[in-house]
Amino acid sequence: MIPMIVVLAVVAVLVAALVSAYNRLVRARNNVDNAWAQIDVQLKRRYDLIPNLVETVKGYAAHERATLEAVVAARSQAIGARGPEERAAAENMLSGALKSLFAVAEAYPDLKASAVFAELQEELAATENRIAYSRQYYNDAVLTYNNAIQTVPANIVAGMTGFTPREYFRAPGEERGPVQVRF
Amino acid sequence: MAFWMAAAAATGLWLLLLLALAVATRNPDVEPGPATRELAGQSPAVVDLITGDWRLCDEAASATLLDLAARGVVAVEEIGPELSLVRLRGEPGGLRPYERLVYDHVRALAVDGVVATGALAEGSRDLRRWWKSFRKKVIVEAREQGLSRPRWSRAHALLLGAAAVVPAVAIGIAVSADDARANHDGGPGAAIVSFALLMALMGRLNGERGTAEGARAAAHWLGVREHLRATGRFAEQPAASVAIWGRHLAYAAALGLAPRSVGSLPVSTPADDNRAWSDYGGMWHVVNVRYPSRLLWGRPPGATILRGLAAGWFAGFFAWILLVVATAFGVWPDGLVLPAALAAGLAVAGLPVVYAIADLGGAATVEGRIVRLRRFRDGGKANDTAKWTYWCAIDEGGSREVRAMGLSEEMWRPLREGDKVRAAAGRRLGWIRRIDVIEGSRLRASYDDTGEHLVDAPENLGEVRVLPDHPARASRAEDGRADDCRRPE
Q1: What are the helix (H) ranges across B145-241?
Q2: Which pLDDT score, from 0 to 100, does residue B183 have?
Q3: Is the pLDDT of residue A135 over 50?
Q4: Which among B61, B72, B423, B460 is least buried, having the fewest CB atoms inside 10 angstroms?
């Protein structure tokens, strides 16, 4: 009788530990999904601003067709991108195209003086800043999640229940890589 | 004896007078008015004062920031459940003095016009002085609006001061009569000290008290509170929801209905020892700071070697005694006593000595921003014999976990949180041998955190002295803030 009770107690403790580890992993994964959704919100905000920006620039610098088309194409590509890696590449391309557009705007004093353009530029800068913070937030969530599924004993639960590592959202040029936990 | 009885009687009478005046000048009773959604002209900070029994509560500063957000001076943006940003919206004009104080604090912290909400507790301002300045500025406005006034008028102060002369002189005479010395010179000193003590007691009971106009305004705002409590779930609203709720959220915060929003904007809260916000690398991020056990970590190598050797010697000695006893009972071979005792001693002394020698041999260079500078008491009883350990946590930008390192008091003193430093430190013992400031803290003296103290506004009657048993409450007590903000229900 006593060995049976001991075995049952050990099994109960093991099951509780497994459930606890599984729940922790689920919470970490949901955090990652949530952080990704936040990036999505900010990126969509940027996509929404770009057509207005293009229209405004077109009004003052219609013959800068190549630059404008590059921005529109980069936007389309970014909207169609899937997954952090593909999306990061597309976003980097879009950022580059926008930089060229703002460089072009420097040559048009009337455009620079336009209140609408200034407002859009400021709004885009604020959105870029929010994207940067969202990216940092997402990468921190991914780090926590990846650490959780790769460390003992949660990696056993992760392996059994199909938790796979997530990709980081890389910054342009990767000046700021994902941070590492040092103990 | 007769002199002492006379002195006691005079003191008792003076205390009775003080009590009578205290009762006569107590705050007016405030009955909540009918529930209404109409916001009157007072700012959230003033509302906090008059609805909190004329005592300013912690949430006043957060409510002020929410009000600035509602008015478009700043924006609060939510990035994730644990990260929101406060974004400056250009240089505002026409801010009230205490709003300017809050705005300047945000501006001083902002990187590219942005500061994480959690980082609002950071900065190297003197929080006690800042809060005092904020409070006084709010009180000035409340007095200008006729909502508040000091408890003691000049007549009260004059009456109590003049009356206090009587017990003070009586005590002085009693001491002189009892003084065994030839010239009986203890009396004047006793009289002066007694007078000072009575004046201090009078000052202690001073504070703000509401006027009739203030009571009417408070009643109206308590009606607003009822309306807000019934209509909005403000308790659960994050600070970023100010974009939806506008000034109503700011007033809900001031009225104690929005703890989540207030908690996420720690403008007047001391920074957490273990959870720091750093802007190293250009973006605000959380850094978790640990202060490891000082068994080995955070100690100088020389002292560690001595401690290791001493510990090894004691371990070896006690092992030897145990083994000698064991040998006497025949459970341990005689020839292995000394080798085993030596082995025990070496095992205990080995690790610290090896660590210390390794750290003495070469120090790693640590470059980054100081996120926490702390000292913790480590023995000693009185203030003058207290021993302290000094800690410095440096964010190198590559990790969200930082172990604070130990350093000497001489090195610790001139440093400030926010300084960019280069340090030579042992990685095994965590002891900083040398530290140079590369770039001074941009948070230091970047704005005037003193303000003009235009008005003498001592704390209110009945202030609760909080014993520092809980870190958060202790910080509040140290900051000189009232801990018992009460609103009539």
Answers
A1: 154-178, 186-204, 212-231
A2: 66
A3: yes
A4: B72
Locate the domains of chain A by residue range. 2-174
Provide the residue count of chain B: 489
pLDDT over 90, % of chain B: 54
* Rounded-to-integer distance, Cα B327 and Cα B322, Å: 9
Q: Name the residue ranges covered by the structural domains of chain B.
A: 2-27+152-204, 44-150+208-271+454-478, 301-354
Instruction: Name which of B80, B116, B400 is nearest A181 (Cβ-Cβ).
Output: B400
Inter-chain touch A181–B399, beta carbons under 8 Å: yes
Give pLDDT, residue B46.
Answer: 96
Q: Which two tokens stand for residue B229?
A: 């409590």
Q: Which of B359, B369, B224 is nearest to B301 (CA)?
A: B359
Q: What pLDDT was estimated at residue B383?
A: 63
Fold classified for A2-174: de novo design (two linked rop proteins) (1.20.1440)
Which B-chain residues 59-118 have CB contacts (< 8 A) with chain A?
77, 79-83, 85, 87, 112, 114, 116
Confidence of residue B393 (pLDDT cuts 50, 70, 90): very high
pLDDT digits (tens, 9 = 90+) for B270-287: 899 999 999 998 889 999
- B283: contact with A, CB 8 A cutoff: yes
Nearest in space to B160 (alpha carbons), one of B199, B191, B188:
B199
Q: Which of B202, B149, B112 is nearest to B456 (CA)?
A: B149
Q: How far is B78 from chain A (nearest CA, A)?
A: 9
Label residue B443 by pLDDT band (50, 70, 90).
Answer: low
Backbone angles phi, psi at B433, to 5 degrees: -95, -30
- The dihedral over CA atoms of B137, B142, B148, B151, expressed in degrees to the nearest 10, equals 10
